[in-house]
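@channel anyone free to eyeball this complex?
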Amino acid sequence: SQTIHQWPATLVQPVGSPLSLECTVEGTSNPNLYWYRQAAGRGLQLLFYSVGIGQISSEVPQNLSASRPQDRQFILSSKKLLLSDSGFYLCAWTDRGREETQYFGPGTRLLVL
Amino acid sequence: RKEVEQDPGPFNVPEGATVAFNCTYSNSASQSFFWYRQDCRKEPKLLMSVYSSGNEDGRFTAQLNRASQYISLLIRDSKLSDSATYLCVVNRSGATNKLIFGTGTLLAVQP
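replying in thread with the prediction:
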C-alpha cells in the first residue's frame, strides 16, 4: 500500500532563517506531488506541484521554492522565512490517471517567530 | 469572489441529528467535485466524490446542482465521531490535477 511521509512534524524557526521540509511517498511510481499551505482559519492554498523529477510549477509568487530530486521525494525550501510563512504545510500525491483523488501526508506545523 | 465558498459554521448538532452543508463554486467549467474531511490538526482525507446524479455512502449523501453551481453534503444519524471540518473541493477548470479547496465547515456533534 502507498504511504506518504513528512518531516519534521513541527518546527519553530526565527524570522530570516532557512527552511527545508521533506516529503516522501512509498508504494507508487511516478506520482504527481503537491505542496499546500493551510494558514490559521484559511483554506488550503496550493503552492507547488510536480509531474516528474525536476519539473516544478509554482502557483503563487512567494519566497518559497520546491524541488523534486527523486521520483518520490518533494522538498519545500526557503532561504529566509517571513512571519507570514507560518502555517500547516501539507504534501499530497496522486496517481497518474487518477489525478483527482489526492492523498495527504500528516503535515508539518511551522511557526515563524 | 472565492472560487469555492462554504459556511464556516460551527454547526452544533446533537447525536442522531441530520445535518446538511452547502457549498457554491464560481467556475462553471469545473468537472469534478469532492468532499474531504479534516480532523483537528490533521491532514484532509477524501470522504466522497460528488456525482451529477447524486450519490450515497452509508449515512452520507452528496448532491450536485450544476445549474446553480451548488454542492451539498447530508449526514444522517450524526455520530460523535463525525465531528470534524468538512471541505468542499472542486477541480480547476482545464487542469484535472489541480483542486480548489473551500475553507471548510466545522461540525461539532454533541452527546
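from a first look: The interface with chain B takes residues 32, 36, 41-44, 46, 49, 51, 88, 90, 94, 99-107, 109 of chain A (CB under 8 Å).
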